[in-house]
User: Fold this.
Amino acid sequence: MSNIVLAITGASGISYGLRLLEVLLAAERSVHVTLSPAATEVMRLELEREVDLKSLTLIDLLPSGSTADVGGHMYYHHYQDFTAGIASGSFPTAGMVICPCSMGTLASIASGLSSNLIHRAADVHLKERRKLIVVPRETPLSSIQLGKMKQLSDAGAVILPAMPGFYHQPQSIADMIDFVVARICDQLGVDVDLTRRWGTA
Ligand SMILES: Cc1cc2nc3c(=O)[nH]c(=O)nc-3n(C[C@H](O)[C@H](O)[C@H](O)COP(=O)(O)O)c2cc1C
Assistant:
């Protein structure tokens, strides 16, 4: 079962990250999850869900009412735990996703700061030339933010903004979330059937 790192940070759109977790587990991946403190604050405000970073479990993160067949396994790592396997290049992974990714986290990674486990694991993915998918959510964007995205892209990261398309005629917010999650899964090489693909029946 391949390891995928999923970091959830304090940008709006926590639902993207939670849905991605659900889909990756249903696809029988081992998902190594870490959250920033700001992510818990945004989750509280957006979803009215409280989580304790000291003792977080899968139930805390699955979307409410989820009936997903959880075939994979979630491993949780505290954002300050630099002893976690994902802090080292010797720990094998099939990639890392930061979803949603705040501008603060994006800038920290672009600058190589590594001041928490999320930044460190992202650094590791870049230095090991592994897939790093960053899902920023911000609008409008300053030149500083655009510059940091360019830096990360040049270093090998995939910048995949949380920008749902409308050509698949979404009927609900869930459809719009799935559009973005499906694009992330395409990047990870995880085969999912969440939205109708352009050019297919
Ligand atoms: C309700 C709420 C929504 C936010 N939305 C965004 C956002 O969409 N994008 C962003 O870059 N920051 C957003 N922020 C600000 C970040 O949470 C803040 O910059 C934080 O320091 C990011 O920390 P982190 O990168 O460690 O998660 C939001 C904050 C709150 C409280």
